[in-house]
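User: Second chain of the day. Same drill as before.
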Amino acid sequence: MTGSTKFRLGDLAAGPLSLHLVPGEVERAGLALRLGLEGLPKLVAHLEVRPWLDGCEVRGRFEGEVIQVCGLSLEAFSQPISGDIDLRLVPEGSPNLPAEAGDGEVEISLESPDPPDVLDGDAVDVEAILEEHLALAIDPFPRRPDAVFDWNSGPDTTSPFAALNALKDRRP
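Assistant: Same format as last time:
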């Protein structure tokens, strides 16, 4: 990818970072393999990383094209993919993490923004964030737009309960 995709929280002291990520062919092939895709011919991400409390905030958008196998026809096909990234990260032990209840559960309101994710150390890997959001945007049950489910039961339309019906008919 063009530019560095890993940095430390301290690097944001100089101000926000604007990143334009364009993975090369080898990187896209590796991503496709890890995500179970037939191919990933195009992927571009525009992200901004800025300080947020004692962590950082990653916002932006990615667009690309994925090649998947149709669940109906079993043929490979290409489809566009895009998504937004809006993520907050804080270091482990941060006072800005949601408070745990007495039983170890965290209470979250559906109206409030998502709680921040916890970093492992103080390193931020933007490439891993992009991969995670790309994986979530991929259709888990891909279907070609022109694929049609045409099932024909064939000439044998006997019911699985035909044997029981035959027993029922033999009663006096």
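The chain is about 20% helix and 35% strand.

User: Great, on to the next one.
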